[in-house]
Amino acid sequence: MRLYTRTGDEGKTGVIGGRVDKDDIRIEAYGTIDELNAFVSLAVAKMEAPLLADIRADFLIIQHELFDCGGDLAIVKKDKEPPYKTKQEMIDQLEVKIDQYMEEAPPLQKFILPGGSELAALIHICRTITRRAERQIASLQKQEDIHPLVFKYMNRLSDFFFVVARAVNARLAIQDVEYERSAIVFRETKREEH
């Protein structure tokens, strides 16, 4: 089997249900998710310390879920209900993890600079790529119907990366650096019981 097909030499690429231009917003969106997945893999490779084993396991799950999101965005033909892979349970689990990791870092009052440890800086890169994918998906859903849970998942994922970067710094005993001109923008609020 050859890896190259030559079918994209004219600037088109295959999606599930047809072909589109390689610079189509759909391709930009799931291409950015692919880019994100590569950076998540780099973060995973940097998590060799035993105290990061649970985070590493979560990131490996997220890599599979990013493939699900990208696959769902690649569907253009919808003669019947597509077999979407992005599920509400994935979003619910991210919310559980966000709450869990948020407890590990000190309370936040001001904006912080991305960084601290090298690993936290890398996770902040994952966060910003997630935000870019989210913006591209927002543009795509203005033009075409897409699976709405992909947008929700990516929105939650950027929050996940933010709190995990802070949790990593806390575990490594490295302080987040507050943005020195930040006002107090975060205030403690009691969570409502459901």
TrEMBL record:
SUPFAM superfamilies linked to this entry: Cobalamin adenosyltransferase-like (SSF89028)
Segments forming domain Cobalamin adenosyltransferase-like: 3-167
Superkingdom classification of source: Bacteria
UniProt keyword terms in alphabetical order: ATP-binding, Cobalamin biosynthesis, Nucleotide-binding, Transferase
InterPro entries (alphabetical): CblAdoTrfase-like, CblAdoTrfase-like_sf, PduO-typ
Enzyme class: transferase
Sections of the chain in a coiled coil: none
Pfam family for this entry, one: Cob_adeno_trans
Entries under NCBIfam families matching the protein: PduO_Nterm
UniProt xrefs under PANTHER family: CORRINOID ADENOSYLTRANSFERASE, CORRINOID ADENOSYLTRANSFERASE MMAB
Protein name as annotated: Corrinoid adenosyltransferase
Native source species: Alkalihalobacillus alcalophilus ATCC 27647 = CGMCC 1.3604
